[in-house]
Amino acid sequence: MKKVTVVGAGKYGSMTALRVAEYNLASEVVMTDIVEGLPQGLALDINQSRFVEKFDTKVSGTNDYKETAESDVVVITAGLPRKPGMSRMDLLEVNAGIVTDVTKQILEHSEDPIIIVVTNPLDQMTTLTAEVSKLSKGRVIGQAGILDSSRFAYFISEKLNVKMSDVYALTLGSHGETMVPVPSLCTVSGEPLVDILSEKDIDELVKKTSEGGAEIVGLLKTGSAYFAPASSAATMVKSIISDSNEVFPVCAWLEGEYGINDVYLGVPAKLGKEGVTEIVEYDLTTSELDALREASKAVKDKVSELNSINSQ
Ligand code: APR
User: Fold this and answer.
1) Which residues is 60 bridged to in the sheet?
2) Which of 183, 237, 254, 300 has its CA 20 to 30 A from that of 2?
């Protein structure tokens, strides 16, 4: 049985811990945070739901990284969420400091964990975690594509008034402006989306999807989305701890796949007990492939911004 640590017991972290615990696949889920009492209180509350929800996974809360020792999977959610009007990029500097600190502390107590990063700005934070941790690249993975695909699927199901289970949606690329929707591979009851909706309708749904997180931030006013994000991160944990090797769109390190090198980017990947076990190369249309390559350039530019912060 596996041990999972969730760093950051805020909205995203506590919901991820709950969902992972409810899968009943891990022996223990540890939540840690800098706020004293927060992870402990939330852990008690979750544990008191175990009898009702019937799961054995023990949840604990701590402010001490010693209790995260020998974690198999770590989810980093620590950081500031976006405030209204704030872009992911605004978050860069402050969250880079937090993620660097957290990664070092985790590595002091767990030798070779798989780390899933969700803190925004996602592409940079995933790159930073890989650099700081020095883990093999397949063991550091970012979460974004499952969430964006799920948002896209929701908007498709609403538009066509069809069941969610009839929809398959896929987005690749980066989390943000250079998200790459893949309409050619999206289907409704097995039928290609491109045969059902006009290009204009699809473009509208794509726009709603890429603005999906900002729309929620605007409504909440005091935080960002966490139900769908937590489902997405917990699904990644499930695939890893159950070694299912299912294919998900995740932020993974590319070494030539899709003709792209040396960058973390949202691509389909198999997730198993060693982390990313294979990047899966789907047949994309020329324009989708071009968009993916453009996204890789945008992420590389953003990563160089990160380097300029580091060298200050
Ligand atoms: N170590 C541990 N926890 C930390 C640290 C740190 N160095 N710094 C901050 N935290 C904790 C905060 O105390 C807080 O409990 O991270 C938690 C963040 O929780 P929320 O403010 O509720 O934010 P949340 O909605 O969970 O989002 C977290 O995910 O989607 C992204 O953009 C979002 O980067 C943000 C992250």
Assistant:
1) 30
2) 254
pLDDT in tens, 26-62: 999 999 999 999 999 999 999 999 999 999 999 999 9
Nearest to 124 by CA among 162, 178, 190, 50: 178
81 lines ligand 1 (CB under 6 A): yes
**The pTM is what?**
0.96
Please, what is the average pLDDT of the chain? 95
- End-to-end Cα distance, the chain: 43
SS3 60: strand
Atom of ligand 1 nearest to the CA of 14: 26
Q: CA of 75: how far to CAs of 17, 58, 130, 251, in Å?
A: 9, 17, 13, 14
Mutate to test the pocket of ligand 1, among 12, 67, 123 (most ligand atoms within 8 A of CB): 12
> What is the Rg, in whole angstroms, of the alpha carbon atoms belonging to the chain?
19
202 lines ligand 1 (CB under 6 A): no
Fold held by 145-310: L-2-Hydroxyisocaproate Dehydrogenase; Chain A, domain 2 (3.90.110)
Domain residue extents for the chain: 2-142, 145-310
Q: What is the CATH superfamily name and number for domain 2-142?
A: NAD(P)-binding Rossmann-like Domain (3.40.50.720)
The CA angle 282-178-185, to the nearest 5 degrees, is 30
What distance in angstroms lies between residue 33's CA and the mean position of ligand 1's atoms?
A: 8
